[in-house]
Amino acid sequence: MVENTLRPxxxxxxxxxxxxxxxxxxxxxxxSGAPAVAFLATxxxxxxxxxxxxWQTYRNWHLKVALVGHDFWQIPMDALDRVMATAPxxxxxxxxxxxxxxxxxRAEAVARTDPQILLPPDWALKLLRxxxxxxxxxRGAQWIHGVEPDEQDVRIPWKHVAGNTLxxxxxxxxxxxxxxxxxxxxxxRRDVLIVIDPKGDQELMLTLQRAxxxxxxxxxxxxxxxxxxxxxxxxxxxxxxxxxxxxxxxxSDLLGAEVNDPFVAFGxxxxxxxxxxxxxxxxxxxxxxxxxxxxxxxxxxxERCLQKWMVANYPGWERATDELIARMAKEKSGxxxxxETRIQVNNPRLIAxxxxxxxxxxxxxxxxxxxxxxxxxxxxxDHYNKMIQSLLPLLTQLTAEPLDELMSPDYxxxxxxxxxxxxxxxxxxxxxxxxxxxxLSDPTIASAIAGMTLSDVRAVAGAIYxxxxxxDGFIHLLIDEAxxxxxxxxxxxxxxxxxxxxxxxxxxxxFNDYIVKFGNSEAKARMVLGNGNxxxxxxxxxxxxADYVVESIGDVQVPELTHSKAVGSKTEDxxxxxxxxxxxxxxxxxxxxxxxxLLMRLPDLHYVAALSGGRIYxxxxxRLMQPGEAEL
Length: 632
Description:
- Helix 14 (299-313) runs antiparallel to helix 17 (368-378), helix 15 packs across helix 16 (348-360) and helix 24 (511-517) packs across helix 25 (522-529).
- With 632 residues, the chain is an alpha/beta fold.
- The mean pLDDT is 85.
- Helices cover 48% and strands 16% of the residues.
- Helix 23 links the parallel strand 10 and strand 11.
């Protein structure tokens, strides 16, 4: 079927004519003196036809009035609570409609002409109480949403959201409002929520805090902000790991170097040796302690490791150690045989313990952690300092004040009232963490903070997946400006986190942001973003981003009418014989379901969503009002 609803409402004249006919018949029935039955029957027929033509006129005008658009929309939290109560198993995404091929055809028809020509006159819109002035001041093409006059609540099953979601939108397009609406519902469902916000949006933070209060769990809200350390919780980013090698890996991943980079590999090995020694001596790994051992030397740690091993495995080690120390003292005075010193440090006891370990312990009986630390401490110091030059600046940044206390908390400090959390504690307790990384002040540190947090979350997700003890509900991970923190832990959670209940939401302004992140490799960007089954796109200004979203949505067949006509005459007959023909054909034409040009013209707070299962929704979002807040 080919629709032509944008034409003039010719039915209005027919409705008027039938109404006049009805009035004329009623007048004749009362004044002519003839039998009134025939006039009344004719009048009844005229009424029916006038009503039918009026309904057709209404349908035509209803669509045209919808093209005017909608005013700025605000709802209080109470209203959203009522909406959620009617369908608790679905995510509410404002109001809109499912985009069908019919809407594609309508959008193309409107785009071919000036939408202002199709709109009713201003005097008619005023009678309908349509706020024309306010709507026309809104950025974007309001008529895009108006191709469907009958909008409804957009409700998405939560199980469809579990496929990860990509969000695109320019600054000011409505991403923050989308976060507010979505995260409020997550909190009310008592799901775990971790929000990583580079900007530190105050309204989003207040929304999460209010949602926790309205859910009866005010203590569930946690705030991490390096710019406000006194009011921030402490977050131990190295608390959770399934294997000790994960700790150096999550740090070296932040360097962003190639896999075979010798400096990164050396730094990883150095950190792994130190972490192994710390675990062997029951010392909690932390960024501050790692930095201290890397900068000042790991010899004190090695001494504790050797002494612990000797106590358990070498009877008489104390006497043997004292003998070696005495021999070294004689050597120093020139009266004794020398002891080989592989470790360049002025610590006779450590040198003696290391010599005993090398001399008396068989290779197959040695401890792996001690072997690694011995290799670390015996390495030439000058070469060692050169090889860790790429690692130390990163650790210095992550342990500078106030991050030294916030990310490497001291569990023994009873004078610090700030609570200590980690990913496992957040997941088990069903908390809501709002983490502002303060990227505007220091983008490098902000990226590192987010990367370490994601690594800790991945470790917890891996433990949940391996144990099979999945909690009720989801673990939502919402990341704004996600291209800045895309790393291997996040990619792993996107591809494999569903089994542990982890759902990721990655927001960015353009597709090019991801391409630049991966060294201008579009193939790598597509490979990573391919893990997102859902796409929500607000207004974009980048054509490549629009093309990527349109490609994700797909194409459709729309009907198209083709008209042709021809006239002719025979000159040999004096031009008196003419021929003419006119034909109309209907064909199907392939086109984008939602054209890229429309994505670049969406009004503020309007979006297009392509969800797993192939459904496309066009919707608009409200601004969520805080309790007691006056309308804008």
